[in-house]
Design a protein that fits this description.
Helix 1 crosses helix 2, helix 2 crosses helix 3 and helix 7 packs parallel to helix 9. The strands form 3 sheets. The protein has a 7-stranded mixed β-sheet, with helices on both faces. The protein has a two-stranded antiparallel sheet with strand order 1-2. The chain has a two-stranded antiparallel ribbon with strand order 3-4. It contains 12 helices and 11 strands. By secondary structure, it is of the alpha/beta class. It is elongated, with a radius of gyration of 21 Å. Strand 9 and strand 10 form a beta hairpin.
């Protein structure tokens, strides 16, 4: 049987054979970039470095592995973003499981973790809350890198929470604190945490409905709309978090957020009324 037929037949094949067939499958979509993306897809499914397929051409892959790679290639050929195709995404030092139920974590969101860990609140630990957790990226990064004794993650989507919980379970050995998951809109699940939160973080949807059609097809047609767009010119969730977040923070607590296209860090001051904030960093 030829290499080109082995993936479709679900048979064993060498890395080189699989690479060639995946590249052929992706060429109509990617053109000259298909060869490199086929390599990256195989490496991602195998949880190996990008260069691994180049060194392992003669390695025989069993039928189950070939089938997983074939599934990823088929999804990518249909236009799925790479992370959805391979069912994983890197976020800081973590590899997260992702699919169409959750937003793909963005590299720029990693800056929020740096911002938190650089603050006094982030260094001393305590209680951290991630509103709108999606895949769990922010919450799990804080639980693995921070000194927090308690990390709470919320989301309005039950599907997203299912993905986040799966990631938490798989990454449990890397976590320094357990992550609690709560279902609900914005701050609604957190009413019992008044004046007890040290760090409140949210990377909410911020795309206006009118802007949704202008998004790239790889985003607009694949990622969950609930994680991308929201009412009030895209600011409904952001405004809800800002309006009520101060009541959750203990004195000296802070939240980094990305309300629109910038990043700010706010802190509850001991001299400020509940809900009023000042800048910190």
């Amino acid at each position: 049987m030829s290499g080109r037929g082995r993936i479709a037949a679900g048979a064993e094949a060498t890395v080189a054979e699989v690479w060639g067939e995946v590249a052929s499958r992706l060429r109509p979509l990617l053109g000259d970039a298909a060869e490199g993306e086929a390599r990256d897809l195989i490496a991602a499914v195998m949880e190996q470095p990008r260069f691994w397929p180049s060194l392992a051409g003669g390695v025989t892959l069993n039928a189950d592995v070939v089938a997983r790679i074939a599934g990823g290639a088929e999804r990518r050929a249909r236009g799925a973003p790479f992370s959805y195709a391979v069912r994983s995404a890197a976020f800081r030092h973590l590899t997260l499981g992702v699919d169409e139920r959750v937003l793909i974590p963005r590299p720029e969101t990693e800056y929020l973790i740096d911002l938190i860990l650089a603050t006094p609140q982030g260094r001393r630990g305590g209680v951290a809350v991630d509103v709108g957790t999606g895949s769990g990226a922010i919450a799990l990064a804080l639980a693995s890198e921070g000194a927090f004794s308690r990390v709470i993650a919320t989301d309005i989507s039950g599907d997203a929470l299912a993905v986040a919980k799966e990631n938490a379970e798989r990454l449990r050995p890397a976590l320094r604190a357990a992550v609690e998951f709560l279902a609900g809109d914005a701050l609604a699940p957190l009413r019992e945490l008044t004046e007890s939160v040290d760090v409140l973080v949210s990377n909410p949807p911020y795309i206006a409905f009118a802007e949704a059609l202008e998004l790239p097809p790889s985003v607009r047609d694949w990622e969950p709309p609930q994680a991308l767009v929201c009412p009030d010119d895209g600011l409904a969730v952001t405004r809800a978090v800002i309006a009520g977040g101060g009541e959750l923070l203990r004195v000296g607590g802070c939240w980094p957020s990305r309300p629109i296209r910038g990043v700010r860090v706010a802190s509850r001051s001991s001299s400020a009324p509940t809900g009023r904030t000042r800048m910190c960093g």
